Amino acid sequence: MMHSRRRIGIAALPLLVSLAHGACAARPDAPAEAAEARSGPLRGRLQARLDSLHASGSTPGATVGIALPDGRTMGLATGWADTARRVRMTPDAQLLQGSVGKTYAAAVAMQLVAEGKLDLAAPISRYLGGEPWFDRLPNAREITVRMLMNHTSGLQRYEFDGRFLRDLARDPYREWSPEARLAYLFDRAAPFPAGEGWDYSDTNYIVLGMIIERLAGRPYYEELRHRILAPLRLHGTVPSDRPRLARLAQGYAGPDNPFGGNDAMIGPDGRLAFNPQMEWTGGGIASTAEDLARWARLLYEGHAFDPALLPTVLDGVPAKLGRDARYGLGVILRPTPLGPSYGHSGYFPGYLTEVMYFPEHRVAVAVQFNTSARGSPEHSPARLLLEMARIVVDEAGSGGRAGAGEQLPR
């Protein structure tokens, strides 16, 4: 799920930085001690700013991941993973990504495109037209795969439908089939003809997930592990397909949680207030911020699928996500004070996520909060992300060596 439009006016953020140039120069084969020594000043600056922003706001905790031009990554944390139990947030804590999970489904789809199994221009009826419910979908026969992936299909959101929310409240640990999710749209009129409008919707990626499973011949999460998580060594990234996730930080949804329940999303029994499996390919991922930043660099530098397809993924349509924002195939394209960015926003009750890759600087930054309660816009994930990115780019532009932590897979 992605947060509502009031949360994502990112392009309208005040000017935070001026552009800096250069590249980080740490040797990837340097000993760990030397890498840590080089990274110390940068890590210190980042941690100090992170702690300062946390101290001046109301966010329980936050994690930040950085992926640097030399291939190294680092993770930072501030605040509390659990305020009641006074458990500190640590960089290895996992948080729910919400709609950022669409980036993984899009990458799997693009691998299938490269293999000639999936055609972006094909009507989805080619893959699902034989299903008995198919023609009950709005715009069913006119939707193409590309329209699913860039949200121009006219399929509206199932997850904020009042009937779905009531059903979820009645049976919070239900296992949802794809068809059960789609049923909330059956026989409804589309808001616009296929391809002639834009409306962000998890439902698009539920349908895409069904197509992926049809072509792959096995469950989506198995395909994700086989194609993405294992080969790219994303060991801090897991499917959020069950109510108990071992490394998940407590999330705080606040009093206006549209999904109901208590402020604290994880109960005394260790279960989330409802089964996150309801997201599936509309989100469906928990990760560390460091792993998420690593993923963004791998994805937008062409390591997750045939790099010849990257221009296709980044060919966006106008999107209602802030000034001059566009949406490609599972990616939000936004102007920022650091130049263009590729990435995604994410919302799950109790959690907010933002990730951006800055191609002019070859830097990726991910920020995760363990709250989705309304708060000061000065402490939004996007604002914190741009603050962290400015520090990294300034360090690179001033000739500083920004090496740290772990090496990206090549």
Radius of gyration: 20 Å
Structural class of the helix and strand makeup?
Answer: alpha+beta
Look at the structure and give the mean pLDDT: 88
Strand content: 15-25%
Output the strand order for the largest sheet: 3-2-1-12-11-10-9-8-7
Largest sheet: 9 strands, antiparallel
User: What characteristic shape results from the CA principal axes?
Assistant: globular
Write down the secondary-structure element order: HEEEEHHHHHHHEEHHEEEEEEHE
Distance between the termini: 31 Å
Q: Uncertain segments of ≥5 residues (pLDDT<50)?
A: 3-35, 398-410
Please tally the helical runs, counting DSSP H or I stretches of 4 or more residues: 11
The proportion of residues forming helix, as a percent range, comes to: 25-40%
Number of strands: 13
Brief summary:
This protein is α+β, with helices and mostly antiparallel strands. Helix content is 29%, strand content 16%. The protein is globular, with a radius of gyration of 20 Å.
Describe the structure.
This protein has 410 residues and is α+β, with helices and mostly antiparallel strands. Helix content is 29%, strand content 16%. The chain has 11 helices and 13 strands. The strands form 2 sheets. Strands 3-2-1-12-11-10-9-8-7 form a 9-stranded antiparallel sheet, sandwiched between helices. A 3-stranded antiparallel sheet has the order 4-6-5. β10 and β11 form a beta hairpin. α1 crosses α11 and α2 crosses α8. The longest helix is centred in the N-terminal third of the chain and has 24 residues. The radius of gyration is 20 Å and the shape is globular. The N terminus and C terminus are likely disordered.
